[in-house]
Structures are given as C-alpha cells and as structure tokens.
Amino acid sequence: YVAHDWRHAECWPPPGARPHRLYLQGDGSLTASGAGGALGRYVYDPRQPIPTLGGRNMLIDAGPRDQRPVQELPHYGLIYRGEVLAEDLTIAGAVRVTLHVQSNCRDTDFIAKLIEVEPDGRAMLLMDGVVRAMYRDAAPEPQPLLPDHAYRLTIHLGDIHHTFSAGNRIQVDVTSSNFPRRARNTNSGHPILAHDSEADIRVATNTVHHDDTTPSCIEMLVLTPSHNVRAGV
Fold first, then answer.
1. DSSP assignment, residue 54?
2. Is 66 in contact with 131 (CB distance < 8 Å)?
3. Cβ distance 163 to 114 under 8 Å?
C-alpha cells in the first residue's frame, strides 16, 4: 500500500479553510440560503433502536458504510439532502451540527450523521456524533427537557479531511439511537440509564425546528481549490 493522496500543512485546520454553513430545511433539503420550513418529527422507541452501521468503531463493523439499510427502518429519523454538487467540494477541520429540538420525554439522545450520497443512491457514512439532551450544556447536573420548550444543542462530529465528488450530494441524518456503538437512551430522565428496567422505558416523539428563530444547521470548513494541493506536487 502506497498512499497517494496525502496533504501537507503547517497547522490544522489547513490555511485557507473557510466556514461553510448549510441549513436543515423543513422539506428535507439542505441549503446555504437560510433556515425555513415546518417542524420535523419522528418517534424513537428504545425497544427498537437503530443499529450501528459503520463509523469509528473498533469491535464492530467500521468505516464508511451504506446507510440505506437502516434508513429504511420504521421511525429511523429525519434526512436532509443537498443539491447535486457541480464541482468537487473539500472540507478540512471540525464538523458540528446545531439543532433546535423538542421532546415529549424528560431526556433523549440526538445523533447526527454526515453522509455522502452517490449517483447510484449509496449513502456513505463519513462521521457521526451524539448528545444526550439532558446534558446538552455539559452542566454537572442534569437538565430535564420540558415538552413545550425548544432547546439548542450542538453535536460535535469530530475532524475530517474529505472531498465530496462532483455529482454527489451532502446529506445530514438526525436520529436518536446508534446501537450498540452508543448505549440506548431509555428516555426515562434518570441520570444512570444502566439502572433502568423495562418499566422505565419511554417512547419519545422528537422534534427538530427549522425556522429563522430556531434554526438547525451543519457547519464545516471548506478548502478552496488553490489550497487543496496534493503531496509532492
């Protein structure tokens, strides 16, 4: 194996990386033009968690895996898909998803996935992250959710250097389980989920907001072509 696609830079993120924000829209689109659209809702039942399919794992199947088998499951979550890219788009740096959310349970998880959709329909996972809503502000004490209130939370997906190929699409999925990579949240609101019994499990209806006052978006750093130089060139 000889690597042929290394990039060299004196710092991280590389020089020339600029912020790029895409908004999650109520119609399931992903666009830079601004927030908008109706609420998005889905049901999360801890008794039927969404299985892990690829990602940064060690003891289970890892890497970029086609997400279509899990996306087809009932109550998977929400899918936001961008337009077909007219040219290559390279991102380099940290990726984060900010959501405005509601739930009818005192606690639940929100998971975001960054995906590249290929022309044949394959939805290849690039990275994902999770936030337990009750600890959304990294506070030392749990902050249970109120059903009539929208909360802002940020999901950090990690760092990446990746080029989305022309003809492909950027996609963001929002769901509430990724099992067994992430322990399932029972939605009980109890601080220690491992102590919960079957009787403690609650089925959550989770909501994502999309309007101007409570926007949801993904933020990345984009490299311009002049800064995207191959090693050895």
1. S
2. no
3. no
How many alpha carbons lie under 13 Å from residue 137 in its C-beta half-sphere? 9
Residue 113: name the closest of 163, 69, 71 by CA. 71
Q: What does pTM read for this prediction?
A: 0.93
**CA distances (Å), 214 to each of 20, 35, 86, 135, 204, in order?**
19, 8, 30, 19, 21
Q: How far apart are CA 39 and CA 218, in angstroms?
A: 17
What's the pLDDT band for 5 if we cut at 50, 70, 90? Answer: confident
Sheet strands (E) in the chain: 17-24, 30-31, 40-44, 78-81, 89-103, 109-117, 123-132, 151-164, 169-175, 204-208, 217-223
b/e per residue, 13-32, with b = 16+ CB within 10 A? bbebbeebebbbbbeebbbe
CB 202, CB 123: distance < 8 Å: no
Of 74, 42, 70, 73, nearest to 55 by C-alpha is 70
Encoded tokens for 149 = 């209130």
Which residue type, as a one-letter code, is found at position 105? C
**The tokens of 225 are what?**
């072509």
Q: What is the mean pLDDT of the chain?
A: 93
Question: Among candidates 83, 100, 108, which has minimal Cα distance to 215?
Answer: 100
